[in-house]
Amino acid sequence: MQNLVVLGATGTIGRNTLDVAARHPDKLRVQGLTAQRDVEGLFELCRLHRPRYAVLVEPAAAARLRDLCRDAALDCEVMEGVAAICELAAHPEAGQVMSAIVGAAGLLPTLSAVRAGKRVLIANKEPLVMAGALLMAESARHGATLIPIDSEHNAIFQCLPSPARCGERPKGVHRLILTASGGPFRETPLAQLEAVTPQQAVRHPNWVMGQKISVDSATMMNKGLELIEAAVLYRLPADRLDVVIHPESAIHSVVEYVDGSMLAQLGQPDMRVPIAHALAWPERWESGVGGLDLAALGRFRFEAPDERRFPCLRLARFALRQGGALPNALNAANEVAVEAFLQHRLNYPGIPAVIEEVMDAAAGRQAGDDLDGILALDAWAREAAAAAVAELGRSLRHA
Ligand code: NDP
Ligand code: MG
Q1: pTM above 0.90?
Q2: Alpha-carbon distance 275 to 13, whole Å?
């Protein structure tokens, strides 16, 4: 029996994780759940899964959850703040930690789990982009086990020679090919992209996901972040990492070996598949998802991504090749730009425009190898991005 801690429990990945865990009560006990402020959502999950601990970042939300748990006679200790999340992620009794907070906010909790030598199931890709070298070095030093949840990186993990290990360059691998659906705007005429709304951007054709990653999928920044994530997890240079658009989202990625063999993992576009794989690894458990009906699918399509349509992919490739301060700056600027877009303060083409401006300004800056340096660069890039958003907003209003 293993204890499971779910960071970001109220999110899409968090809920899918609990769905899988609940199918295996003989193997997993839900020990702790965390969220930012969604009191009702976390309370409902506490009633269903009976964790020993629950944490909300916001104190007022935590106070309210404490009352709700007491009134419902739940034996759950409710804590508040980021430090409490970090403590739970490193709890001596925690066996597996699902890292599923969205964005850079997940860095400290993920680092905490890594430094405690946990088995960390990592969905939260942004910390790998902003602080990949630090996370991998700390993981090696503290004997943590990282298992990727992102469907592409999990697919690659499954196709690597066994036993696969993140942080080591796999033997005999020539190239990793990440598949991408192309998102909701794969075929939208370029001239119409100017006017797309947040509602259109978050409507993904194949996957149900949180808002931020849904916008990232529309711009293909998600695939750009995933290229950097792959370089960090599998230690391959930019010229050994490729992206191909595969609109059916049935093949989740491909490993090409030096002998020309290509191994791929297939499955339904349902995150419970990679989640169950990671929870069970090296065993296999039921996920609640069946296989694909290949005959019904009929055929698979592939096409090269067009960087004019998806400038965010070009920017991420550039950041990957240049390294230094750029991946962290790209990630921070993207988070600020996507939030502004979701709040109607920035139009859709403004997202890559803001990121490019921040990357240009970041070019001469120090990368910041330790945690303080990484956080300082992240904070600087957020300020620069906010200024760029305000500037673009002004010029749009005057246009
Ligand atoms: P959601 O937006 O659905 O959920 C985010 C979770 O993080 C919620 O529990 C939220 O709490 C919590 N959270 C948000 N901000 C903070 C904060 N500042 N401090 C602490 N907790 C916070 O995201 P997803 O589940 O879609 O994605 C989670 C991560 O997994 C992302 O990094 C994403 O890129 C990655 N991922 C997601 C996939 C998917 O299919 N959804 C696929 C592959 C990767 P609250 O509800 O209280 O706001
Ligand atoms: Mg993915």
Answers
A1: yes
A2: 8
